[in-house]
Amino acid sequence: MLLAISGIFFVFILVIGATYLYWAPQWREAEALARRLAQTSTASAAQMEIPVVQQQVLSHIPWFDAALRRIPFVLRLDRLREQAGNQTPIGIWLLVGGMCAVLGFWLVSQIGRLPWWGALVCGSGGFSLPFLYLSHLKHDRLRRFHEQFPEALGMLIRSIQAGHSLIIGMQLVSEEFPDPLGPEFRRTVEHITKGGLPFDEAMKALSDRLDSLDLKYFVIATIIQRESGGNLTEVLEKLEGLIRQRFELQDRVKALSAEGKLSAIVLFALPFVIVLALMVLNPGYLSVLFETETGRWLIGVGLSMMIIGGFITKRMIAIRV
After folding, report:
1. Does the N-terminal peptide bond of residue 198 adopt cis geometry, omega within 30 degrees of 0?
2. Which of 5, 230, 255, 261 matches a 20 to 30 Å C-alpha distance to 237?
3. pLDDT tens-digit profile of 276-305?
């Protein structure tokens, strides 16, 4: 019964994926034609560009895109995809996650012979794999942005001191820095200068796309200075110094917590290493643990306690600066 359900769901996802691969080029061509027609119309640049900034394409399948927009959880996943710098629509990631969930559910239910709830948990874990990968991309992209941001602030300060406006300074920064800082600043400048988006909205959109606390401080400082006036150069110099000092403190914290992280890795890897060694040295010794119902329950309880312990340990050794 479980095999039949998983097979039907797997075929359903394959059909949707094949439909997308077949029709997506035509939909993209239609969208490109619509954009070209919009550019030749009498609508203003602001009316053309603002919807592009505020509304992302979740799927190139119209009915699927409309359905996904009604689900808040999908919108949060799309925000994660955008922060990761990935251009693939979130609908494709959902299809990949569904296929991973069905595959994990089937493998565990048929090969591992765990109860239905265990197979369901493994299927849920399979569904989360693509989004864990997106989360990894997001953190890696954010790390590279934090490495670039102090230098970009220094360049922006020198540009303003030379007599350029903030927008021109951001454009110069976008031309000198690689991804992610350069393209994101360039996108913001284009939204302001070509798209007609208000400065405040464009800067807030930049902050949402990167989800950086340092960038939020920069956005707030520029918005306040634009509304009330003041010495922007002095504010940015203080922000640059604060960011560099925080990086120094973070390096010290990493050095002090390195021993705790290594101890946690050893403690959590030790049970798996022991089980693997016993299966190699004496294969029949652990057979009762995998073949009996009580043994499977003990495995589930043990893994659950390890996950909870890992979460608590991570909270203990992760110090936010």
Report:
1. no
2. 255
3. 898 888 888 888 888 888 888 888 888 888
